[in-house]
Write a structure and sequence with these properties.
The protein has 261 residues and is an alpha/beta fold. Helix content is 40%, strand content 22%. Strand 10 and strand 11 form a beta hairpin.
């Protein structure tokens, strides 16, 4: 395969997935990692991508870039549903207590599965959320008690944010929280593009007795503008693929349980 052909395939992969790995590309093209790095350097010089540790990302994936909710609903849909199924399985049919559901499309997928996952009778389960999407999913479910937290709503995430939202969450102590993220990396931890979203996520993590991070593999290695938690602040990561070596090592050092859906 000629270099130009490889580079065209790399650009196509970036358009479809948003991120590529040097090791994965070398294996796929049956070339050395040095050859792949030269391809990525060439594409970066042409403005086609941005180099990051271990690979490259689409040029539009800046640290403040944030896709609309409607677009994110369709992205990695199967992976998100699989992650949600594995995440709610952590509760068990006899769970009784309080659950906080964070904003985000994967968290909304968790919310959609909660009623059936908790059994026919349920009872004694309180769900709290600041996400309009999660609240909409659960609003007609009579077997659950639902509390929504208000605040200024960000249209891009359909979630309440701001000082009032953070103060309200700080007064809670949910038994378990399902939290989403835009990025998770070994060195930077959990991050998101918006400071207000980050403040709310940090408050959820500080308040919950147990924190379950739900994140598809596309989030691995991503570092957005604002960190809202270190890795050792979460208890479980539920994802759709095994993390890369550096992240896997960092997760193990932080004593985090990793479940691959």
């Amino acid at each position: 395969m000629y270099a130009m052909e490889r580079q065209q395939l790399i650009e196509r992969e970036l358009r479809d997935v948003g991120r590529v790995s040097v090791v994965d590309l070398a294996r796929r093209f049956d070339v050395t990692t040095e050859t792949v790095r030269r391809d990525l350097d060439r594409l970066e010089s042409l403005g086609s991508l941005r180099r990051v540790h271990g690979g490259a990302v689409d040029i539009g994936r800046a640290s403040t870039a944030e896709s609309p909710l409607t677009e994110r609903r369709e992205r990695h849909g199967d992976a998100k549903r699989a992650i949600a199924s594995a995440a709610v399985a952590l509760l068990g049919h006899d769970f009784r207590g309080s659950i906080f559901v964070d904003a985000g499309t994967t968290s909304a997928a968790v919310a959609a599965l909660l009623p059936d996952a908790l059994g026919a009778g349920i009872g004694g389960v309180e769900v709290v959320t600041h996400s309009l999407e999660a609240a909409h999913v659960l609003s007609s479910e009579e077997r659950l008690s639902l509390t929504t937290i208000g605040g200024r709503v960000r249209g891009v995430t359909a979630a309440a944010v701001g000082a009032h939202t953070v103060r309200t969450i700080a007064q809670l102590r949910p038994d378990i929280a399902f939290v989403g993220t835009n990025g998770v990396s070994a060195g930077f931890g959990l991050s998101t593009p918006d400071p207000d979203e980050a403040a709310v996520k940090a408050a959820i993590i500080q308040s919950a007795r147990r924190v379950v991070l739900v994140a598809d593999a596309a989030k691995f290695g991503e570092e957005l503008l604002v960190r809202f938690a270190q890795l050792d602040e979460i208890d479980v990561l539920v994802t759709d693929a095994a993390p890369p070596a550096d992240l896997a090592e960092a997760l193990a050092d932080a004593d985090i349980e990793v479940r691959v859906a």
